[in-house]
Q: What sequence folds into this?
């Protein structure tokens, strides 16, 4: 974990002494999270969270492709499984339901970006999420997660508008074998440059 957290700062230090093009940006926005399958009795609802952090982008020679990493805080929906039993008949039935609460993560993304034209671009990669805490009382800290990312961005002067889909790979309720579902997140953020070479 410490090595992964150190990488964005290592990239920043490297760029300070590099003659290549690079920039540091701050981003903030909202996300909409849902689960990979509908296991709740009330349906698969969408939950709203927030995200903010720093990005470090290194541009290759042709400026079409770039590599991006960073460190960001994510507050996304998490699934909490519960079990209910219908009694009063000869064949009791177990129903798995899923309640939700927002969980906090510290995320380290690794993205390859491609500038399609002057305004539009695409990115893809992965992010490692370190589970910090969960807002639902009595629940343990969020579990670490790995997400595959893909999305588009639009550049306008010193600002960039990002729309990214994140496909979580870890079970939201790994402790419960009855109910297994993974987090899916759609994130919209606005980035602004405050340090550039």
A:
């Amino acid at each position: 974990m410490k090595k992964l957290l150190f990488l964005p700062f290592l990239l920043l230090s490297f760029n300070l002494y590099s003659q290549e093009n690079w920039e540091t940006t701050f981003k903030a926005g909202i996300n909409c999270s849902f689960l990979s399958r509908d296991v709740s009795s009330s349906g698969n609802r969408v939950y709203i969270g927030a995200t903010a952090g720093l990005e470090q982008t290194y541009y290759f020679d042709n400026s079409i492709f770039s590599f991006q990493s960073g460190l960001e805080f994510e507050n996304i929906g998490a699934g909490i499984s519960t079990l209910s039993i219908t009694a009063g008949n000869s064949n009791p039935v177990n129903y798995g339901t899923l309640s939700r609460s927002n969980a906090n993560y510290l995320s380290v993304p690794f993205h390859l970006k491609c500038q399609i034209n002057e305004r539009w671009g695409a990115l893809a990669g992965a992010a490692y999420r370190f589970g910090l805490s969960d807002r639902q009382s009595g629940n343990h800290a969020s579990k670490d997660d790995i997400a595959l990312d893909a999305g588009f961005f639009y550049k306008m002067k010193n600002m960039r508008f990002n729309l990214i889909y994140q496909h979580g790979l870890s079970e939201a309720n790994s402790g419960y074998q009855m109910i297994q579902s993974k987090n899916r997140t759609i994130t919209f953020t606005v980035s602004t440059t405050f340090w550039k070479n």
Summary: Residues 2-16 form the longest helix (15 residues). The helical segments are 2-16. The CA atoms of residues 73 and 106 lie 5 Å apart.
